[in-house]
Amino acid sequence: MRGLLSNYTRQRNLPASALSHIPGNDGRFLVGHSLDFLADPLGFARKTLAEHGPISRTNFLFQRRISLISAEANEFVLLDRAGNFSAYLGWEPVLGSLFPRGLMLRDGDDHRYHRRLMQPAFRKEALAGYLARMNRLIGPVVSDWLARRQLKFYPSVKRLTLEIAADIFLDVQLKSEIDQVGQAFFDLVEASNAINRIPVIGRLFERGLAGRRRLASLIEQRIPSRRDGEGTDLLSQLCRAQDENGQRYSDTEIVDHLIFLMMAAHDTTTSALTTIVYALTQHPQWQERLRTLAGSVGLPELVHEDLGKLEEIDWVLRESLRLYPPLTIIQRTAVKDCEFQGVHIPAGTPVTVYPVATQRMAQWWTDPDTFDPERFSPARAEHRRHAFAWAPFGGGAHMCLGLHFAEMQVKAVLLPLLRAAKLSVAPGYQMPYQLAPIVRPRDGLPLRLSPTQS
């Protein structure tokens, strides 16, 4: 824990009496349950569920809150038919300074307007163009990985997904510029886990703010030339996007949206690819199944029409996201008094739901801690037992807009990698991982690659 002062305190902390009707406790003096949650979100959720049930009073990140741990709770909070909750108020304390006014930090009509204006940049035609750009970058990198034979996969794939994001989002291709974007972006994302948020004292957080300023400056410099251009990168599309009245995003809105989208796309894909590759080293039969598939689809290179032919990769991706969701929790704040399963939730209460826990509940999943991609096959379809038992991309109006982009990128990397290399780790190796702020290996995942053809 890097400090005890946080911008969480900008939002009023509820008095203990406000939630006294709900089972639970305030945790340790001053820090509450923060250390337990940050160290092991899944373990914390399971312990809380066992001790207090699916509706409990918890206290972490400097706020008393209600923890709702069930698929039914995911549906109630994320679908939010009655408009009980604010995503902005839920996420602002942790993301507001670093990713202000991103799509995840907007509510109601404002959120719908900005999402609708952005949607053309994620339609089939745009995605097909992004895929062509990905292919150009991925092939040489996979060849380099194979030549090295051993590498730490997480930082290697993180670099690749950064290059892809820089190219597709900003049309940045020069190594010096990519390095500049990469360092600024790394500082920004790391700062989202800083509890100490006072500049100078909170050096990690200050580096994040400085990284954001550098990214914003780089984007702002490019906006004038993209307003009337014909570029296919995401920045160009956001610059040209307009509503039915001809209104466009302001420069500030473009900067805010692009930085947030880069964070969401880059970190999610890096995490997913890492957990998939690790799973394939532990389950060689699945590695061979996907390699056989890769030998028959997407040749000479993957095109958008091929994506629907990769069903088994879809299963593996979904299973990896089930076991290791990039976002372990989803946060909201109640904006009016409401009730869930007979329990009163006062207005102003932070509410947290836990995909990391519901995605491993025996109520919905057979052998829930076991890697078993066929649970997503049409024959079993365990994910259909409850529409919100599997929610790594959220749900409702805030369902991840870049879902198909992320799935496409995972396939674009996996296919050439599996065609070229057999993937393995040292005998007996078990990946040590951290779940917060996003799933990643603590040791970078040392990976061995051997050519599939001698």
From TrEMBL:
Q: Where, in this chain's numbering, is heme bound? A: 400
Per UniProt, which keywords does this protein have? Heme, Iron, Metal-binding, Monooxygenase, Oxidoreductase
Output the Gene Ontology terms for molecular function. Answer: heme binding; iron ion binding; monooxygenase activity; oxidoreductase activity, acting on paired donors, with incorporation or reduction of molecular oxygen
* Oxidoreductase as UniProt keyword: yes
**UniProt keyword Transcription regulation present:** no
Give the PROSITE patterns listed for this entry. Answer: CYTOCHROME_P450
A biological process (GO) of this protein is: sterol metabolic process
What cofactor(s) does the depicted protein rely on?
heme
InterPro entries the UniProt entry points to = Cyt_P450, Cyt_P450_CS, Cyt_P450_E_grp-IV, Cyt_P450_sf
Q: Which family does it belong to?
A: Belongs to the cytochrome P450 family.
Return the protein name: Cytochrome P450
- Could you tell me which species this protein originates from? Panacagrimonas perspica
